[in-house]
Amino acid sequence: MDFELSEEQQRLHDTVFAFAKKEWEPRTLEIDASHRFPAWLWARMRELGWCGLMVPAEYGGTGLGLLDTCIMIQAATQAGGDIGSCLAWGTHLSIGTIPIVLCGSEAQKKKYLPRIASGEWMSCFCLTEPGVGSNAAGVELKAERRGDHYVLNGTKTFITNASVADVGIVIATTDKSKRAAGVSAFIVDMKSPGITVSAPFDKIGNRGSETCEVGFADTLVPVENRLLNEGDGFMQVGVKTLEYERTCLTAIWTGNIGYNIALSVKYAGERQQFGNPILLYAQIRDRIAQMQIDYDISKLMMYRAASKKDSGTPAPLEATEYKVFTGQASVRSALEAIQIHGGYGLMTEYKVERSLRDAKLGQIGAGTEQMLLELITRLVTGTRSKTI
Ligand SMILES: Cc1cc2nc3c(=O)[nH]c(=O)nc-3n(C[C@H](O)[C@H](O)[C@H](O)COP(=O)(O)OP(=O)(O)OC[C@H]3O[C@@H](n4cnc5c(N)ncnc54)[C@H](O)[C@@H]3O)c2cc1C
Fold it and tell me: Separation of 365 CA from ligand 1 center, angstroms?
């Protein structure tokens, strides 16, 4: 068991950290106020070659594993890159792309992956609907087969990147009577006729990512754009993608805990009360220690879940535990950081108030905390809750 990053992993971390600290962190107030994903950031990501991290090299990507990708994502928010923009990037890297990498046919991979990996096409993942959240297997968006096409009708909501995406992975029902076994997944050109995307929603946080409703009205999708077979959308595509999503996107919140610590240590070292920097007072020191413990646990859980997955072994328990712990720890660390900053912590320019606003999604998106706790108990005991 080796807890050290390899030289190459350390280099990946340091490269992203340096970029985010120099170019991204200084613009986070502006990004947060804009409620938009910054086009300049995507342009820089493209120049840096960071749009296809987990796409195999033969399709134009970087061919990195899940752990390497997590390390890069974590470095971005650790350096102060905002959680919202990082969520847009992470969504593209993981749930917008991985279904094609893992489940796409050769023709689908050749058609979509090179342009996704170069960043020419941005991607999104469309599962949630106005009436279907945690009960994800119950999707109601219909895909009806008509000759060489499917006709899509219905509404998706809370879709990250919908307003900026060119390609979407859309989860739809092809046979409602079969529930989860009747769900199919499609690669959809988001500019297709019949697709309407709402203006981005106003949100408490995560404002550097755009979250929208997407309507489908008689949208034609060629049969060759279906991933795997009819009925594989939930049990195959969804399940295979899920652990990538949980681990990859949670790395965003792990990094933010590190950022909260850095901001708190800096502030506490500068702020003088009663004749000393407040950093020298025990109650402040205890809080920093607790944040550091949370940060280290979260990083170790990330390493464990991602490296297990990279070794080819499913890691549902590890990925789920990692997400639940980090969702809680991220909220905790943002609250502690604000407390250490006193009244200044509530002021936008000190940036820790945004950490709190951005943290909450970690307990809701990609499976709410309650759903994931149930899943953990299910995996550990082999029993099912009466309600879920
Ligand atoms: C900023 C943002 C970005 C998002 N991005 C995407 C995206 O890109 N793609 C996408 O498809 N989705 C996305 N989502 C949707 C997200 O995954 C869902 O919000 C999440 O899965 C929860 O669904 P819901 O909001 O409908 O809550 P609900 O499922 O309605 O849950 C409401 C509450 O009830 C609880 N609950 C539900 N059922 C039970 C039960 N049986 N027993 C006990 N408690 C229960 C839940 O835990 C929760 O506390 C995003 C959401 C947000 C806010």
Answer: 6
CA distances from 354 to 204, 231, 260 (A): 9, 41, 10
Residue at 84 is within a domain: yes
Atom 23 (ligand 1) nearest CA: 133
Residue 338 shares a structural domain with residue 374: yes
* CA-136 nearest atom, ligand 1: 21
The domain of 79 spans 7-117
Structural domains in the chain (count): 3
Q: How confident is the model at residue 362 (pLDDT cuts 50, 70, 90)?
A: very high
pLDDT digits (tens, 9 = 90+) for 255-277: 999 999 999 999 999 999 999 99
Task: Tell me if 133 CB under 6 Å of ligand 1.
Answer: yes
pLDDT over threshold 80, residue 1: no
Contact 107, 139 (CB under 8 A): no
Q: Is the CB of 134 under 6 A from ligand 1?
A: yes
386 located within any domain: no
Position 173, amino acid: T
Same domain, 361 and 254: yes
Q: Which residues are catalytic?
A: 245
| Residues 244 and 259 reside in one and the same domain | yes
- Cα four-point dihedral sign 365, 367, 371, 375: negative
Q: Is the CB of 125 under 6 A from ligand 1?
A: yes
pLDDT tens, position by position, 99-152: 999 999 999 999 999 999 999 999 999 999 999 999 999 999 999 999 999 999
Same domain, 41 and 78: yes
What is the 367 CA–ligand 1 centroid distance (Å)?
6
